[in-house]
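QA checklist item 7 of 12: single-chain prediction sanity check.
[x] sequence parsed
[x] length recorded as 380
[x] structure emitted
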Amino acid sequence: MCAIAVSAGCARGAGDAATDHAADFAAAAAGVADGAARRTCGDADLARHATAALIEEAELTPKPALVDGRGSGAHRDLDLPTMRRSARALEATFAALARAARYRIPSATLRAELAQIGRAGEQAMLHATDGSNAHRGAIWIVGLLVAGAAMASVAARSDGGSAGRGAASGSGTGGGVAATAASISVGERAGAAAAVSLAGPAHSVADASEASVAHAARICSLGAQIACFPDRFAPPADTHGEAVRRRYQVGGARREAQDGFPHVVGIGLPALRHARAQGAGENAARVDALLAIMASLDDTCLLHRAGRTGLQAAQRGAQRVLAAGGSATPAGAAALNVLERALIALNASPGGAADLLAATLFLDKLSRQDFIGSTASWNI
């Protein structure tokens, strides 16, 4: 996508931004979160995790007015088998994105390369779905995180960051890498804590290690830096999302990425981990993470299909479910049913929130591989 509205994270000049991108990549390459032992994620691993995240999001049931195991929700051209085909068709795209980003720093050149890969992936998706848009937003959101994870994993490939330092040195960042790494690490931890506060005190991440949170924030930061560069070869934007952004003056998926994925690292992941810590089953924890995202997201899918009325119905309905104790409680389940009926009556679907839940599940998978040593599916 071509950046039109410039976010706060992209507001400074190109020269300053390029310096920051190189410094941040050097920091990520110099060491990983206080020496925590990590397992290397190769390109195929990242692609597999991304694909699994898309499929698990689609299969999650019940979701309000979205495709799930019960049916098509508010969609007429999508169903669960179509969503699965779409996700599997994108695995090669995610692998190509990881391969292109590994050992690179965020730049306009890389941004253009990734965009071309993403557009080819979109065609693969459309071929697999007979023309239905199952995952266009996810190609952007999850694709950027795949690229960011490939960059961040450079540090994990070496003991003490020696390979990462080589990559950083090769990028022309020069000396001072260790000092830069220390300062970025502190900044990222502070940023992660600030982002988590967006979800409110009920979404504490006391159950997650500081290193896990910082690593997720680092991946999001690298993805955001890529998103801040313009796509020089993008065709003129003529999408529903672009029209909605102009009409309602909202940031959409582009701003979400440029701002560092706040609804993923600041809301989705904390909500997911908090629900688990409170003893919720995995299915309910994921549904509640989706609702937490819905409660604050200016979802362009909702705005496109039902305007401000649909957006407000989704946000307020999601808040009511969470206030009732979450989807697993009797009161919460009843509120969820009311929310779904209201959205279907409006022909509204929170597709943007669904993409961000998939991104949340992707980062959660990486966290479990890095810190637990397993990516086995949760029992849901």
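[x] summary fact logged: Residues 12-169+213-281+354-368 form one domain.
[ ] second reviewer sign-off
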